[in-house]
Design brief:
Radius of gyration: 22 Å
Largest sheet: 6 strands, parallel
Distance between the termini: 54 Å
Strand content: 15-25%
Structural class: alpha/beta
Length: about 450
């Protein structure tokens, strides 16, 4: 969109979290007339209320009133689902609806590297940022990772690089968003509650990351993932795959224990796989995608190799917390899907006491039954979905229920034996007991540190 068309235009922003406030201020700077609406109660949004008030932006909290429809453009924060009544009503009224990422992209002069996927988005986005940072390339990391794209876009110069983590919800309402480099890590069952239990609908949302890419752009993708490999067949851009199962003519693959790339006709032996600091097959995929992105951005092999050796991962993703009486505790609070738990279980070769549950997203736990049988000693069922977890696993696994995170940690401690792992990897959203997965992980870590 021509940003000049925003002057005096009435815009409603739905959701007043980080992205909502940031996009409201961005649009206000271009002369738009803003109104922000959030269903959360005012006592939970005191900081946001203060920020909006200081900027002179009108808002309402606690409900979405009819005032939100007095606009010609509605902008959604990442946490607002497409099937929310306020969104459906706006669509019926003919109001144009876009995501915060779409709006920010209208103002972006920098090349965009955009990362999506059911699992691994945050690790890969962070790792690409680290590769660029270690190579002294000016960049910003934003998007679904916690820093709103709208809050950094005006600070970016044309020569800078912006690395974005992009969720399917953000992509649902993108129209012109066009990354120069897009990454699809995988497409596995997730958010079925938001996509009417349809993998086809979910995969179509992920595929929107490349819908505006041209022959001048690049799409990096997992050739081993069935849904991803199928989705990218629609792409009109240059495709660069990665695989841990077979050698490729172009892309990233494993050969004689080394991560090897062939990009733009140039072969590089990047690093011995066992020297990569983040472990597990899922992290090998993340490292491959990040390596290709770094190479396309002009980072040399020695620098990428050094980053892969030293990068320790991200908070709340298989994060080691502490060892107590021979039991190692890991925080994997960001594992909000069954597939994320599948990856986490594969990363350990010790018996696991698994803390599982939260706000369910249409989970099918049968996908991890065999792995749980092979890896787990016991399960601690937590959160709103404790009944579902207990019903799914109690036929073949020792399942104990806990009514709070405090009780869950103590229960896990009582079940674990020296040499075991206690793993918080919930497979669910956190919004039953917590504000977000970060808070869930931080509370877990504090409780473990106090054992």
């Amino acid at each position: 969109m021509d940003v000049l068309q925003l002057r005096n235009r009435k815009v409603s922003v739905i959701g007043a979290a980080r992205s909502g406030v940031a996009v409201a201020k961005l649009l206000q700077s271009e002369g738009a007339k803003l109104f922000v609406s959030d269903k959360q109660q005012a006592e939970k949004l005191k900081a946001e209320a203060q920020s909006l008030s200081q900027s002179g932006i009108a808002y309402e909290f606690g409900e979405h009133t009819n005032r939100v429809y007095d606009c010609s453009l509605m902008v959604l924060s990442p946490g607002v689902p497409s099937n929310a009544p306020v969104v459906v009503n706006a669509q019926q009224r003919g109001i144009k609806i876009v995501s915060e990422v779409e709006v920010a992209s209208w103002f972006c002069r920098s090349p965009i590297v955009a990362v999506t996927g059911s699992n691994g988005k945050t690790t890969t986005t962070t790792l690409i940022g680290r590769i660029l940072g270690d190579a002294k390339k000016k960049h910003a990391v934003a998007g679904n990772i916690g820093t709103a794209f709208s809050s950094v876009v005006l600070e970016l110069a044309a020569a800078d690089i912006v690395v974005l983590e992009i969720s399917s919800f953000q992509l649902d309402h993108c129209e012109t968003f066009r990354p120069q480099i897009a990454v699809i890590l995988n497409i596995t069952q997730n958010h079925m509650d938001r996509y009417e239990n349809s993998m086809e609908r979910y995969a179509a949302a992920k595929a929107r990351i490349f819908m505006n890419q041209t022959a001048d752009d690049v799409l990096i993708y997992d050739a081993d993932d069935e849904w991803t490999a199928r989705a990218v067949q629609q792409a009109r851009c240059r495709l660069i795959p990665f695989s841990i199962k077979r050698k490729l003519d172009e892309g990233a693959f494993i050969e004689e224990g080394k991560l090897v790339t062939v990009v733009r006709g140039k072969r590089d032996e990047i690093i011995n796989v066992d020297r990569i600091s983040i472990k597990g097959p899922h992290n090998l995929y993340n490292a491959m995608a990040s390596t290709i992105a770094g190479q396309l951005m002009g980072v040399g092999t020695p620098s990428i190799r050094a980053t892969l050796k030293n990068f320790k991962g991200v908070e709340h993703r298989q994060e080691f917390v502490r060892e107590v009486n021979g039991v190692r505790y890991y925080n994997d609070s960001k594992a909000t899907s069954v597939d994320a738990v599948w990856y986490a279980l594969q990363a350990f070769d010790r018996p696991i006491v698994l803390m599982l549950g939260g706000r369910d997203k249409g989970n099918d736990y049968s996908r991890i039954f065999d792995l749980v049988r092979a890896k787990a000693r016991a399960i601690v069922a937590i959160g709103e979905s404790a009944d579902k977890v207990e019903k799914a696993f109690s036929g073949f696994m020792n399942v104990k229920r806990a009514n709070s995170i405090d009780e869950a940690v103590l229960t896990a401690q009582s079940l674990a034996q020296p040499g075991d792992v206690v793993l918080l990897s919930p497979a669910c959203a956190s919004f039953d007991w917590f504000e977000n997965f970060e808070q869930r992980g931080k509370v877990f870590k504090e409780l473990v540190k106090n054992l």
